[in-house]
Amino acid sequence: MRLTVKKTVFRVVGSLLAVIIVLIVAIYAWPLGSGSLRAAPAVTLDFAAATAEAGRVVAADTADQNVRPECRSQLLTHGKRTAKAVLLLHGYTSCPAGLAGLAKVYFDQGYNVWLPRAPRHGTTDPLAHTHVKAQELTTYANDGMNVAAGLGDDVGVAGISGGAVLATWLAGHRAPVVHHLLVLSPFYEPSTEQAPRFEVKPLIVLFGFRLLPDHIDDNGFSYSSLSQYLRIARNLDLDRKGPLSSIAVVTSAGDDFIDHQRAMRIPRQIADLDGIKLGVHELPKDLGIGHDIAEPTVLKDRAADLYKTYFDLYEGTRLT
Questions:
Q1: Which helix (DSSP H) or strand (DSSP E) does residue 272 occupy?
Q2: Domain count, the chain
Q3: pTM score, two decimals?
Q4: Which CATH number belongs to the domain containing residue 288 in this structure?
Q5: Domain presence at residue 258
Q6: 241: burial class by Cβ within 10 Å (0-12, 13-18, 19+)?
Q7: How far apart are CA 142 and CA 145, in angstroms?
Q8: Vertex 180, ends 120 and 313: CA angle to 5°?
Q9: Average pLDDT for consecutive 10-residue bins of the chain (320 residues)?
Q10: How far is CA 133 from CA 9, 69, 81, 136, 182, in A?
């Protein structure tokens, strides 16, 4: 009898181990490439059509009582198509207010600027961002580039955190129109302090495809939402040579949120392919600035100087 029980226990344990092994293999083998996350249909808009489309977005934000006033999409133009235009993409859980100061720097330098609000961001519902989908984000970025391309001749994109992932995505999938790329604190992958590397793919699969219930961490960040940006980061086009005139990356030594090696490696790969130099700037740790390196409430009296640095890196007039 005891031998039979032991055999039964061994069989059950063996079966459970086999199931666990199969699940682990399935998770690590799960394909993260997606045709829908690599689709970036270009729509050619002249200045009138571009401003009309941006105006429609701003009006929709203004009419929507769920959108916080400071978080409405922002269009800054000089009333005509300019020599230069830029698309600015804010980060996860942020909104256009976080890049408004940087937008003014571009505008004051003669740029037309389009700063759209990301889907499910900047609303009165503090949990709206937890429902964002990867394809919503790529569509938002692509639509934003369609508008920006109609605002000026020399067009580029700058983004922070998750917005930097979208900016990099555009540099590959909309290569013919993106001439400048600036990524601030790019969230291509979390730091090992946030998640050991062997956990990253399981997190993307289980939460990015919403196979597990969402988890909100102490910062109010949704695992499911963060995983949408990580899915997009696995669908960048890093082999497509474009007409980039400049590319730069800015990080902070005090940022324990992102993988700093990957934050450098991806822009460098793009720069090397295009045969241009990579601008690199790191904020020293003693500044006390972490991940949010463009937020005016974080930068305070350093904002003007840092915004000028970011602008010069974007234009390629400085490399450090």
A1: helix 260-274
A2: 1
A3: 0.93
A4: 3.40.50.1820
A5: yes
A6: exposed
A7: 5
A8: 100
A9: 54 52 66 92 98 98 98 98 98 98 98 99 97 98 98 98 98 97 98 95 97 96 98 94 92 98 98 96 97 96 98 96
A10: 43, 23, 33, 5, 24
